[in-house]
């Protein structure tokens, strides 16, 4: 194994290296709460597939929930759907990239046959595959994917920034659904990475007053750094009352719920102006319950409730992905402040347990090579 490692370190021809090296380290999910750092075979690429050397991979909240609580569609499985890397091998029919290209992975593999795919609504594909939940993903030294599931990176972007493209595209998909306009007042409930990305997209779209609500002061400080006008710690004050006071009881035009809790769902309804919109970005991990008087806000204020799922449109992968790369490149979208922790993949079991237990305050957590 030491000889093989030396060959890996010294070899200059990356395409030949990928053929030489037969095994890799990966995080393998076996069952709920059971994820292990083990050695497995490097996947073999088909004629239209690409093999990446994974450089950075983000941990999504859904990864922790799936691995530690809910279970996945199949196992054993390599999780991870937010990742970037370098092309080290290409199939015989691959034409869009070459060995050595720096790329970001696109995890959704749409069927391209269902009615929704036929109208370009790839996020809602009826028969999709997905890297990291239905097929092996990016928590590994190497990952394979179809050639249509990657985008080349601008030279100015790091691999770590590129690992943030997928969640940034998810946030943009939702903000586009909400149709935020110039001059809008926007509240974002939840200062996690998705919420803080939504803050920045709302600002790019022209929102002039952006409120962020969270209970962690460190996250509120980052929110201020990336463009929030008002940061409200819900431990110290009642956020709806404060926002209503600042807006002279008008409320906000758009509320973005980015936590997935009943508390923030209620708040999002109560602080939205009449004829306003509530965008649901946070997944529900328990029963969704509204008191009758809070539900009445939907009726009496004629609110529009918007769901948002995934990050794709036509042409695949869509304007969400291409605009994310554009705004990252020109510096208007900032993801470095959101990355709070970096670990080696060999620490995967400990990191997942600590994130589940909330043993530390974190934003976006990355595995880096």
What is the fold's blueprint, element by element?
Blueprint: H1 2-10, H2 14-20, E1 23-31, E2 34-41, E3 49-59, H3 61-70, E4 82-90, E5 102-105, E6 108-109, H4 115-118, E7 129-130, E8 142-146, E9 150-152, H5 159-162, H6 165-178, E10 185-189, H7 193-205, E11 209-214, H8 217-225, E12 230-233, H9 239-246, E13 252-257, H10 262-270, E14 272-280, H11 292-300, E15 304-307, H12 319-329, E16 339-343, H13 348-357, E17 364-368
Parallel strand pairs: 10-11, 10-13, 11-12, 13-14, 14-15, 16-17
Antiparallel strand pairs: 1-2, 3-4, 3-8, 3-17, 4-5, 5-9, 6-7
Give a concise summary:
The protein has 369 residues and is an alpha/beta fold.
What does this structure look like?
This protein is α/β, with parallel strands linked by helices and 369 residues long. Helices cover 32% and strands 26% of the residues. The chain is built from 13 helices and 17 strands. It has helices spanning 2-10, 14-20, 61-70, 115-118, 159-162, 165-178, 193-205, 217-225, 239-246, 262-270, 292-300, 319-329, 348-357, and strands at 23-31, 34-41, 49-59, 82-90, 102-105, 108-109, 129-130, 142-146, 150-152, 185-189, 209-214, 230-233, 252-257, 272-280, 304-307, 339-343, 364-368. Strands 3, 4, 5, 8, 9, 16 and 17 form a seven-stranded mixed sheet that branches. Helix 3 crosses helix 13.
